[in-house]
Amino acid sequence: xxxxxxxxxxxxxxxxxxxxxxxxxxxxxxxxxxxxxxxxxxxxxxxxxxxxxxxxxxxxxxxxxxxxxxxxxxxxxxxxxxxxxxxxxxxxxxxxxxxxxxxxxxxxxxx
Length: 111
Description:
The protein is 34% helix and 36% strand. Strand 1 and strand 2 form a beta hairpin. The chain has one domain. It is of the alpha+beta class. The strands form 2 sheets. A 4-stranded antiparallel sheet has the order 1-2-3-6. A 3-stranded antiparallel sheet has the order 4-5-7, with helices on one face. It has helices at residues 2-22, 81-90, 104-110; strands at 26-34, 39-46, 53-58, 61-65, 68-72, 75-78, 95-97.
């Protein structure tokens, strides 16, 4: 139960941090972390769309490369086929470099 509460708090904090990055593109943005299964679910309603997009990041791990936090993952599932193709093109190594101010050590404790 503690793990679920921790995941909710972490999910809320990450959503709050990332939402401003997406507000020009989306009406809503939410990220949910499940640290026990090592999955993240992103749900966003893009502007001009009627239904949300879902992105599931499966088998994630947090790394530090060249002083930057990096989110590596095993698989990315996307509810829109064209977005999955786009993600495959832009993220061929299954890695997402996080913003420079990402507190790696703190995040590592929680996800």
